[in-house]
Structure formats: structure tokens, C-alpha cells
Write a structure and sequence with these properties.
single chain; alpha/beta; Metallo-beta-lactamase, Chain A; 4-stranded mixed β-sheet; 5 helices; 44% helix
Length: 113
């Protein structure tokens, strides 16, 4: 989902992988031309919600909006360390016929709303 503001765009989630994110970025820019994608909101740390965050940072230089408790994990994802280790597990599971999305780690965040 993309949300248009007066001077910029915010995208909600970067699911699956870099290819999917690059396709979404291209479509958003087609639908909302001449505005930068400034923010990416990542609702939580499961791979089906953050698999493409590196594409948004590399392509658009976005600021990622996320839960404070997830900062260190996203830093690992952006550095490539967690992605490389978990991608190997996903490939192995896919080779065995597994269809379940990659689960990275349990959330320790609590809602204060």
C-alpha cells in the first residue's frame, strides 16, 4: 500500500524479496509520479513483511518506521547478515516442499496503546 502526502510517499510493508519491492517501487512511481518515497512502514519483523527492505533503502534512501524493539534485527537485515543466513534456510525448506513463510524470530514487543 502506498500513501500519498503533499510532498512525498509512504509505503506500507516491503514483503517477500528485492524483486517484489522493485516492482512495487516502479508501480508506485508510475501511479504517483514526481514524488519521492520517503518512508517505509514495516509493521513487524516477519519475512513476509520485510523481505524487500534493502531494495527500498538502496533504491530510494527511505527512512524505515518500525517498532523500537526491532531496531537491532533490522540493522542485521540491512547489513545482509541475517538475510543471508535466513535465505539459506528458506531455500532448504522450499526444496523440501515447505510452503510456510520464513519466520525470523519471535517478537518481544508489547503494545502500549
Amino acid at each position: 500500500m502506498a500513501v500519498e502526502f503533499r510532498d512525498f510517499i509512504t509505503v506500507i510493508e516491503a514483503p517477500l524479496d528485492e524483486n517484489r519491492s522493485l516492482a512495487v517501487i516502479a508501480e508506485v512511481k508510475k501511479l504517483i509520479p514526481n514524488k519521492p518515497i520517503r518512508y517505509l512502514v514495516s509493521t513487524h519483523h516477519h519475512w513476509d513483511h520485510l523481505g524487500g527492505v534493502r531494495a527500498y533503502v538502496a533504491q530510494e534512501g527511505v527512512t524505515i518506521v518500525l517498532q523500537e524493539s526491532n531496531h537491532s534485527y533490522y540493522a542485521e537485515v540491512l547489513s545482509g547478515e541475517a538475510v543471508d543466513a535466513e535465505a539459506g534456510s528458506a531455500r532448504a525448506r522450499a526444496a523440501r516442499g515447505g510452503r510456510r513463510g520464513l519466520h525470523v524470530r519471535e517478537s518481544r514487543a508489547r503494545s502500549t496503546c
